[in-house]
Amino acid sequence: MSPFSRPAFILTYLYTILFPGFICAALRLFCPTVPSITRPSASSSISSFCVLPVNIDIPYLLSTLSFSIASLLETVHSAVLELIYFTSPYFHLSPGSRPRDCGDLYASGQREDGIYSVFPLHHPAGFQVYCDMTTDGGGWTVIQRREDGSVNFFRGWESYREGFGKITGEHWLGLKQIHALSIQGNYELRIDLEDFENSTAYAQYGTFGVGLFSVDPDDDGYPLTVGDYSGNAGDSLMKHNGMKFTTKDRDNDHSENNCASFYHGAWWYRNCHTSNLNGQYLRGQHTSYADGIEWSTWTGWQYSLKFSEMKIRPTARQIYLS
Ligand SMILES: *[C@@H]1O[C@H](CO)[C@@H](O)[C@H](O)[C@H]1NC(C)=O
Ligand SMILES: [Ca+2]
């Protein structure tokens, strides 16, 4: 049955099953003297249900009412399923077996951290991602990781668009992939950080997306949408909200210089930054200014972090029908 014929089916259902039940009950309650031809048995059909008894018959009235209530509950149940079906894009409902992100994989029972294939709605060929299935309830799709300085992050536009690095180690998933994921629904962003004393902190944003409103996201510079901060690392990203992505070979920032070239990274620079997680791996305190892996509200502009991991997750609860 096509989904678009289902409301009609529901209306028909309401009319033929539920409505006569109520009419019969109402007639028996308020017009008790209307003569009856036959009195239906408990197992009678729906059509023979609507005959009118001479007297008020309490057990019969109750059975009619309970029939109506059962029908009502069934109808409400169907209506709820209809509602879920039609609003599924807003609730991040997965209609099939192909996971759209690590949230879908988590909802389908996967609990192991590691590499999985995901198939976003507008990227049907899919790609591999690292899923964090353990942090704060799991279901996170990792979009960036720094941990040992083994990968060069001072790269140009094409690298940042397509992605680079090793999925199990240091990597950038790619603006194209992050865009394809984040336009599927409402996503949140979590950033886990660690310094060289093994202290950890995190920043979480209830809203996240790149190029959410772009007709051509590449041409538009994959602008960042971020909001609703929580966590203990402090907010070093809200000032980048609405900014386009800048690389050393593509200047989309608000500075007269190129912030990516100046701070040896690639980010949604304004003029220029309060965070620089794609900066150089400078291993802790450094004398140069703001060109390491910085999260200014936690460790300032001259401390390059040991570990950084950015990950996203759909915010609505996962609902599965099948
Ligand atoms: C940090 O953790 C690593 C690995 O667990 C350990 O080898 C190292 O000694 C720790 N460093 C400090 C400063 O505690
Ligand atoms: Ca500039």
From TrEMBL:
<keyword id="KW-0472">Membrane</keyword>
<dbReference type="GO" id="GO:0046872">
    <property type="term" value="F:metal ion binding"/>
</dbReference>
<dbReference type="InterPro" id="IPR050373">
    <property type="entry name" value="Fibrinogen_C-term_domain"/>
</dbReference>
<dbReference type="Pfam" id="PF00147">
    <property type="entry name" value="Fibrinogen_C"/>
</dbReference>
<dbReference type="InterPro" id="IPR036056">
    <property type="entry name" value="Fibrinogen-like_C"/>
</dbReference>
<keyword id="KW-1133">Transmembrane helix</keyword>
<feature type="domain" description="Fibrinogen C-terminal">
    <location>
        <begin position="93"/>
        <end position="316"/>
    </location>
</feature>
<dbReference type="InterPro" id="IPR020837">
    <property type="entry name" value="Fibrinogen_CS"/>
</dbReference>
<keyword id="KW-0479">Metal-binding</keyword>
<keyword id="KW-0106">Calcium</keyword>
<keyword id="KW-0147">Chitin-binding</keyword>
<keyword id="KW-0325">Glycoprotein</keyword>
<dbReference type="InterPro" id="IPR002181">
    <property type="entry name" value="Fibrinogen_a/b/g_C_dom"/>
</dbReference>
<dbReference type="GO" id="GO:0005615">
    <property type="term" value="C:extracellular space"/>
</dbReference>
<keyword id="KW-1015">Disulfide bond</keyword>
<dbReference type="InterPro" id="IPR014716">
    <property type="entry name" value="Fibrinogen_a/b/g_C_1"/>
</dbReference>
<feature type="transmembrane region" description="Helical">
    <location>
        <begin position="12"/>
        <end position="30"/>
    </location>
</feature>
<dbReference type="GO" id="GO:0008061">
    <property type="term" value="F:chitin binding"/>
</dbReference>
<comment type="subunit">
    <text>Homotetramer; disulfide-linked.</text>
</comment>
<keyword id="KW-0812">Transmembrane</keyword>
<keyword id="KW-0735">Signal-anchor</keyword>
<dbReference type="GO" id="GO:0016020">
    <property type="term" value="C:membrane"/>
</dbReference>
<protein>
    <submittedName>
        <fullName>Fibrinogen C domain containing 1</fullName>
    </submittedName>
</protein>
